[in-house]
Amino acid sequence: MTAGYRPNRQRWLAAGAKLASSKSWKLPKVGDWFGSYLDEDGIVADVLNRVRADAVAIKRWLDPESWKMPNYIRRTRSEIPEHAGCLMFAGMSIRNFYGLWHADNPHTVFDVEDGVQIEDGIITDPRHPDNMSGRIIDRVKAELKKLAAQMSPHEPEMATRTPDGMGITIDEHSAQVGRLF
Fold this sequence. Notes:
By secondary structure, the chain is mainly alpha-helical. It contains six helices and four strands, in the order ααααββαββα. A hairpin with a 6-residue loop joins strand 3 (158-161) and strand 4 (168-171).
C-alpha cells in the first residue's frame, strides 16, 4: 500500500451487498460445515499425503522436539531447535480441520447421550475426537518412520510426492532441497 491510500469502504460494502442479495449465494449459518467427513483411515491417508509432500514437514513430524513445549529453563535458546513445539497443537488442528467435533460427524461421539465410554472419569471411547486425533497422529508418525527406514541415510535424495500425488518417489530436484537425515 502506498502512503495515504485507503481502500474504498463503500465499494467493498456495495460488492458485499450485491453478492449477498444474489439468489445463487447464501450467507452461511453458524455451524455450517463445508467439508466432507472422513473416517480415521481417510484422515490418516490425507494427513500422510500432506506431510509427505514436504521434506521439512517429514523431518518435523519425526523429531520429538516438535511435539513438546520448548524448555528454556534447562537449556539455552541456542540449544533448542527453532522448530521446537511447532506440532504441539497438531491434534487440535486435526480435530478442527476434519470436523471431528462437529455434531453431524458420523465417525465421532462426544456426548453422554451418544453412549460415550467413560472409565474412572476419563473418556476412553475410541470414537471421541481427542482419542481419534491422537491415534491419527500416532499412525501418521508410524508410517513416516517406515518411510524414513526405507530411505538410506547415505543417499542425498529426498522423498517427494509422485506426479499423481499418491506415492513417494526419489528425484533429483529434492536432492537440492535438503536431506532428511
